[in-house]
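To whoever is on call:

I kicked off a structure prediction for a single chain this morning and the downstream step that reads the tokens threw a length-mismatch warning. I double-checked the sequence; it's 58 residues and nothing unusual in it as far as I can see. Pasting both halves so you can look.
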Amino acid sequence: MLYWAAVFLIIAIVAAVFGFGGIASAAGDIAQVLFFIFIVLFVVSVVVSLFRGRRPPI
């Protein structure tokens, strides 16, 4: 998911350089949403792993 956020960020930068403001804005918004979803999933994953702890080997 972080990969796709970076891809849309690159698309937004390239579109902004060439003057496509609408496309750059849309791609930037998509990148921002994907980045925040990634951050939320990462934090949830860390919290769950802290509460579960390590299991003893079988």
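Update from on-call: the warning came from a stale cache, not from the record. Cleared it. Sanity check on the structure: Residues 16 and 45 are 34 Å apart (CA to CA).
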